[in-house]
């Protein structure tokens, strides 16, 4: 470290070595001052190693920050006059979660610590330490080769006291193991990564898509058929009601500081609501099977009834128009009169839905589908209405004329029956028709504004399940949710284009926009009987993606489950060529750590060499297991990335090194896990070669075989096979186990009381270290 000179300091250099720091003056006559680096209490010897440093300099003062390989911060000050240094003082300041490979102190009182292991952090100084700190750790220099000076140990803090975390820059370094599969059951490939070192370790799930966070969840009395959010007035900033339609009832919830049920809202509670919408400025409309109900504050309720013997089966709307499908196959089109406030029937088209729209079609999922385009800027009404009977492989586009009449503009042949329709306005006036099919295909049709003809067609297969479309406003951008086995967001981009991106969410059956004082940019989702209020973790990502075509990281997110020890192996717990069950196995181990002192806030290195904390963990990344995580043995700090189903903690003198998943030839229906365990293993990698500790007894090993029990899903020990040396390489080979033990390569198969050695190749290669 270069010491400031001139009027700011005595000049010279600080030289850090193993366990000590020396000051060398600029003059040859200046004596070399040596200070022992403070070390952690309980360490058998002082092998403190400095990995990074930073200088903080102000007018008339300066000090250095040193970071050790364990993340301990030491403050170094010099007592000096002119070019003479009389004393070097080294003081323990704080402990970072992990060692910083580089540091920078800002003049404004902030510290940035970049780490080679784990997240980078930005801190604000709350203090710079004092000599009365109860943590201890003060060392004062002496002349080199003289007395040892004052040397103190310190107790590392679990949480920094002099530093306050202001921001965190996430990092996956170091990535120690990786697996790819559809762990979540979303018909999309995810990446499982084991990262970190020591207490900063984690199991990460990397998924392509916008990340969401759950704001609230409530259980409904039954599974609904529709959900809507409504404002009382067009000028209101926030939504006032959540309307939930059931098979024979309607539930109305008022949105405030809490969400609670109301009965005096003007909605009929004993009918199934098909559509709830705000028309004009303050007209709330409820569409149900037996009619249309228009409610306006301080005004009489207006109702429209369908012809006798018919029912309303489907409906769609925009801020001024409504269209409904009748069970007789007719289409009725309404507009809101801006002067009288009445809902006027403008036109009725007979037999538009050739197969009818009655409830008899619900047995095969075929029901009429309708979708309006919203009015473009400067227009009073939408230009197009898309319809389909839901049974034939066609969709029709009707153009709305200036007098309100409907004329056929285009007919589109489709590769399957329609399950849902939606229409977006991209840019200022570019309409895009979205068609979801029963066979899981989503079509995007760009329409000509003047003629309604289709100018561009894009097709995307989402999943084998029918696609349901719901328009949702996110961050001021009109988007559309495409719901299938997973959730997709179709959002606009520049130049009139649209992009389909996944949404990393729970399973969703229906969705709608949501805006309240607590959740200004959210949406309501329903799955079975669970109603959730969700929001994007970063809503501006939608807006950024709409403006920036090249935003590769905008639709990529990471969730994690903290691990108490360093993950050495990550295994996909499934049979070869079979679909993923979402199960993974992590093999974790750290030396000089007790299994009773692990986890966030704990510090490794306090135990003697040869003592290990080692765990074999069975975890699930499947969404159903995460939702029902109370059934598993989960840690307090687990996040939605995974849930622990079972964990096996080894003894203090045992360390898990490697593992493999195997299905034996004579037991094809069962899944086994083979784990290599070392006993009495001692690794001294920090001491100089001539001072390294020798083990009292040679290390031995075991091959432990576990079988996966299905109910409950746990690892049951089958038997243990003793080996003369630790095995650090395991792999499955044609229904058997291939093990690298020292310089030998062995092939094992399943036996009743132990693994049976079938063949061995000795001296083939030096010690095998991976497999």
Brief digest:
By secondary structure, this protein is mostly beta strands. It has two helices and 59 strands. It has an eight-stranded mixed beta sheet with strand order 40-41-42-43-19-46-45-44, with helices on one face. A five-stranded antiparallel beta sheet has the order 5-6-7-8-12, with no helix packed on it.
Distance between the termini: 43 Å
* Cα Rg: 34 Å
Estimate the helix proportion, in percent. Answer: under 10%
Oligomer: single chain
Physical arrangement of strands within the biggest beta sheet: 40-41-42-43-19-46-45-44
Total DSSP E strands: 59
Which structural category do the helix and sheet elements fall into? mainly beta
Percentage of β-strand residues? over 45%
Largest sheet: 8 strands, mixed
Average pLDDT level: 85
Task: Please characterize this protein's 3D structure.
- Residues 145-149, 356-363, 546-554 and 631-639 have low confidence and may be disordered.
- The strands form 14 sheets. An 8-stranded mixed sheet has the order 40-41-42-43-19-46-45-44, with helices on one face. Strands 5-6-7-8-12 form a 5-stranded antiparallel sheet, with no helix packed on it. A 4-stranded antiparallel sheet has the order 1-2-3-13, with no helix packed on it.
- It is mainly β and 771 residues long.
- It is 2% helix and 50% strand.
- The chain has 2 helices and 59 strands.
């Amino acid at each position: 470290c270069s010491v400031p000179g001139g009027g700011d300091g005595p000049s010279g250099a600080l030289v850090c070595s193993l366990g000590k720091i020396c000051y060398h003056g600029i003059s040859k006559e200046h004596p070399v001052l040596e200070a022992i680096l403070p070390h952690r209490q309980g360490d058998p010897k002082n092998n403190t190693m400095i990995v990074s440093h930073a200088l903080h300099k102000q007018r008339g003062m300066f000090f250095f920050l040193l970071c050790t390989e364990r993340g301990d911060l030491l403050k170094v000050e010099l007592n000096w006059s002119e070019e003479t240094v009389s004393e070097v003082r080294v003081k323990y300041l704080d402990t970072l979660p992990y060692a910083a490979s580089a540091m920078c102190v800002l003049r404004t009182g902030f510290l940035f610590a970049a780490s080679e292991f784990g997240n980078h952090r930005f801190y604000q100084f709350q203090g710079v330490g004092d000599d009365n700190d109860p943590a201890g750790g003060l060392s004062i220099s002496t002349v080199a080769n003289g007395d040892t000076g004052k040397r103190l140990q310190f107790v590392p803090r679990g949480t920094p006291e002099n530093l306050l975390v202001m921001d965190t820059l996430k990092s996956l370094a170091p990535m120690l193991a990786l697996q790819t599969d559809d762990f979540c059951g979303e018909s999309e490939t995810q990446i499982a990564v084991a990262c970190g070192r020591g207490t900063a370790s984690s199991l990460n799930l990397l998924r392509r898509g916008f990340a969401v966070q759950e704001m609230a969840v409530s259980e409904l009395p039954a599974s609904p058929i529709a959900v809507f959010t409504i404002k009382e007035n067009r000028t209101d900033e926030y939504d006032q009601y959540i309307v939930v339609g059931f098979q024979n009832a309607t539930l109305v919830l008022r949105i405030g500081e809490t969400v609670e049920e109301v009965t005096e809202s003007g909605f009929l509670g004993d009918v199934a609501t098909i559509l709830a919408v705000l028309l004009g400025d303050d007209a709330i409309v409820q569409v149900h099977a037996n009619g249309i109900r228009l409610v306006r504050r301080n005004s009489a309720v207006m109702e429209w009834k369908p012809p006798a013997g018919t029912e309303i089966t489907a409906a769609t709307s925009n801020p001024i128009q409504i269209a409904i499908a009748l069970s007789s196959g007719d289409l009725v089109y309404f507009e809101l009169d801006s002067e009288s406030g009445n809902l006027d029937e403008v036109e009725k088209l007979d037999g538009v839905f050739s197969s009818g729209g009655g409830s008899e079609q619900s047995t095969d999922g075929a029901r009429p589908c309708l979708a309006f385009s919203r009015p473009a800027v400067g227009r009073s009404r939408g230009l197009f209405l898309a319809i389909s009977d839901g049974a034939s492989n066609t969709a029709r586009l009707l153009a709305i004329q200036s007098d309100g009449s409907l004329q056929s503009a285009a007919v589109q042949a489709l590769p399957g029956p329609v399950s849902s329709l939606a229409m977006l306005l991209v840019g200022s006036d570019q309409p895009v028709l979205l068609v979801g099919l029963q066979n899981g295909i989503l079509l995007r049709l760009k329409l000509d504004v003047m003629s309604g003809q289709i100018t561009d067609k894009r097709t995307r297969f989402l999943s084998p399940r029918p696609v349901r479309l719901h328009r949702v406003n996110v961050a001021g951008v009109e988007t559309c949710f495409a719901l299938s086995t997973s959730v997709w967001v179709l959002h606009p981009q520049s130049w009139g284009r649209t992009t389909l991106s996944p949404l990393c969410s729970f399973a969703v059956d229906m969705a709608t926009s949501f805006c309240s004082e607590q959740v200004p940019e959210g949406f309501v989702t329903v799955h079975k009987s669970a109603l959730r209020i969700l929001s994007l973790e970063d809503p501006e990502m939608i807006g950024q993606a709409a403006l920036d075509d090249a935003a590769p990281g905008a639709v990529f997110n990471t969730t994690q489950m903290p691990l108490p020890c360093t993950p050495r192996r990550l295994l996909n717990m499934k049979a070869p060529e079979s679909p993923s069950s979402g199960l993974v196995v992590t093999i974790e181990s750290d030396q000089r750590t007790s299994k009773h002192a692990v986890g966030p806030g704990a510090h490794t290195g306090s135990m003697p060499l040869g003592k290990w904390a080692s765990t074999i963990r069975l975890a699930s990344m499947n969404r159903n297991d995460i939702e029902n995580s109370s059934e598993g043995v989960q840690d307090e700090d687990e996040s939605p990335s995974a849930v622990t189903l079972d964990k096996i903690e080894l003894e203090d003198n045992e360390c898990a090194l490697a593992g493999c998943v195997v299905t034996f030839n004579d037991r094809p229906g069962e899944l086994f896990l083979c784990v290599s365990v070392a006993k009495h293993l001692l690794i001294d990698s920090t001491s100089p070669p001539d001072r390294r500790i020798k083990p009292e007894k040679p290390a031995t090993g075991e091959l432990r075989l576990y079988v996966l029990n299905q109910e409950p899903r746990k690892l049951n020990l089958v038997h243990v096979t003793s080996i003369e040396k630790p095995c650090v390489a395991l792999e499955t080979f044609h229904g058997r186990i291939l093990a690298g033990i020292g310089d030998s390569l062995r092939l094992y198969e399943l036996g009743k009381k132990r693994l049976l050695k079938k063949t061995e190749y000795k001296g083939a290669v030096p010690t095998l270290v991976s497999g």
